[in-house]
């Protein structure tokens, strides 16, 4: 673990995720030979940054399950069904932080409860601070990127199909990807 030496007091404040300039995506192995990538097109979130003491920071994100997009309408429909996300019963996926630890000058572990299909599990997302800037509209922006891997079985998502050659159609492990641009509140 790297000793955290850099603080960011100028970043202290409330932020809103700019969904038009952010991505929440995922990657799962398909038929054990390739990967399928997708994203959620509708989400919102806020976070509070304490630049002097990151452990006092917090975050909350809400994803609309119906907005899943893998670039294949039939597959998206199947993922929305009771076999996977049970979107009608559980229309939202949420993440609420429970702790933030600075692990290096620009790296942070964000731990929190990820709730999918009504099941909440603690996960840790390693995030890299990509920088801050004032955009052409006068907004103060920050950027973070990171990923983590979850087991879909942990959330009761167990549907699968056996392959004739052995193995299964959909991997249990799913990598969640985060590319976040957020605007500081005035």
Automatic annotation (TrEMBL):
Q: Which first-to-last residue range defines the signal peptide? A: none
Kindly give the Pfam families that the UniProt entry links to this protein: YceI
Give start and end of each Lipid/polyisoprenoid-binding YceI-like domain.
14-183
The Swiss-Prot or TrEMBL record describes its family as follows:
Belongs to the UPF0312 family.
Indicate what this protein is called per its UniProt record: YceI family protein
